[in-house]
Amino acid sequence: QVQLVETGGGLVQAGDSLRLSCAASGRTFSRNIMGWFRQAPGKERTFVAGINWSDNRTYYANSVKGRFTISRDNAKNTVYLQMNSLKPEDTAVYYCAASRPGLGYVSVSVGAYDYWGQGTQVTVSS
What we know:
This protein has no helices and eleven strands. By secondary structure, it is mostly beta strands. A hairpin with a 6-residue loop joins strand 5 (46-51) and strand 6. The protein is globular.
């Protein structure tokens, strides 16, 4: 059974940092695009960051560029999202996702990802 489990969310103040982790089990994800999405109450789930499996190139939503960093450790089957300089508008449930194996590009579309975690809440107070 394939599982993605996110940890590391919490309640922080504006300007603080958090590091989210996504541990995969049930199969290896070394050939999958890994992404982070977020969903605020009443809003659609949107792309935050993604990392390619072939060259570890990273991609970010404009709203988080320069503040968030995605990375992966294939040996641990884990992907991370380091979030710095957090803002109240970053408040959302954050989801980890994995594409089908061999997808050659980082997609910002929810539909491109086959596997999803249960989400972890990040709340940033002003």
